[in-house]
């Protein structure tokens, strides 16, 4: 059959049954739209949440803390994290770095201003090794200790604090919400030796002072939620100023393991030394299981809708084929082969599938981008919310379009085969 004749027959077949063709295109469009939404949301928001969780809960980091001893209502440390312990941990096979954390051992109060509103609160400040927060700095800010410098102390704030302020405190107190860009570079006063609630702290120490701090970054690290972070040597210097040369131990150590295969070995060695070793491996695995289960549930729901749509397409095509028995019988009688007839039927189904698929994908892409822009402006900037809600790109479009074509053509192939296998005389006779 000449190619122009083939396309002419396709055009005639589609033009003569506009109502049923439009109905089939509509079913395919809805089906492809559902598939597109499922794919874009699954690989956008949920996959983004998985990636964000893996970044927030690094599997290669082990938190080392002293064992605790409970006596009645009190809890005491049963060991101390000293520089000697740090050296022993650094010598363990598989350990790349050991970062130290040291709390400021004094009463603290923070005073600052947000858009003309004066705020005062008790504060918790900890010192941390510089390399552990290097990736959280807002360039070109720096985070290091210089005893000769008169500039404010650089500090990194847990982003969780900003979330808490914006999501709860600002609304309840009628204060303006702020973003990271506003906070970077802002300064606040840290009052040493006094608290907001209790006033003066350790009377024996008798020290009181004020230092200026400057925000140089925000961190998502879940290990660093204990308080505002300053360089470790700053914390050592302030502790020495307030308490003298009293011995002090680190509150926590963060052991970075270069080879994930040695996590269990390093953890066991740390516990042998008499310390607790905590890893986020189990937490992240549970989170990943829940997220992947959610993705599977969405895809299962989409598959259910695809199955229902397939039945609708089969019903529509079956009715159309039944009404066209005489046409097919006449075509076979005048010499159209089974192969050509099958090609015509598949061509009709493919055209309807492509048209419906293009409409479905186009509607989702237009609506999805608008919805994402609206949601991006409405959703708060939160530690655990990924920035991307829908993944709208050519891969999602091609995947959804392919699914639409496959179900539209694949679901009706048995019907087509049944038609071309029926003898022409029988089709003409049944038509009457």
Q: What are the low-pLDDT stretches, counting only 5+ consecutive residues below 50?
A: none
Report the helical percentage. 40-55%
Rg of Cα set: 34 Å
The end-to-end distance, rounded to whole angstroms, is: 28 Å
Largest sheet: 6 strands, mixed
Strand proportion: 15-25%
Query: Which structural class matches the secondary elements?
Result: alpha+beta
What does the average pLDDT come to?
Answer: 81
Q: Spell the H/E element sequence.
A: HHEEEHEEEEEHHEEEEEHEHEHHHHHH
Strand segment count: 15
Based on Cα principal axes, name the global outline.
elongated
How many structural domains can be distinguished in the coordinates?
Answer: 2
| Largest sheet: spatial strand order | 13-7-4-14-1-15
Number of helices: 13
Family: Belongs to the ABC-4 integral membrane protein family.
Protein name: ABC3 transporter permease C-terminal domain-containing protein
Domain ABC3 transporter permease C-terminal: 300-424
Keywords: Cell membrane, Membrane, Transmembrane, Transmembrane helix
Index terms:
19% strand; 13 helices; alpha+beta; 2 domains; six-stranded mixed beta sheet; 53% helix; single chain; 432 residues; five-stranded mixed beta sheet
Q: Could you characterize what this model shows?
A:
The protein has 432 residues and is an alpha+beta fold. It has 13 helices and 15 strands. It has helices at residues 3-15, 18-56, 83-90, 159-173, 180-183, 232-243, 263-272, 281-323, 325-333, 338-378, 394-410, 413-421, 424-431; strands spanning 61-66, 68-71, 74-77, 95-103, 108-114, 117-122, 125-128, 153-158, 187-192, 194-195, 199-200, 209-219, 228-231, 252-257, 275-279. The chain has a 6-stranded mixed sheet with strand order 13-7-4-14-1-15. A hairpin with a 2-residue loop joins strand 5 and strand 6 (117-122). It is elongated and about 110 Å long.
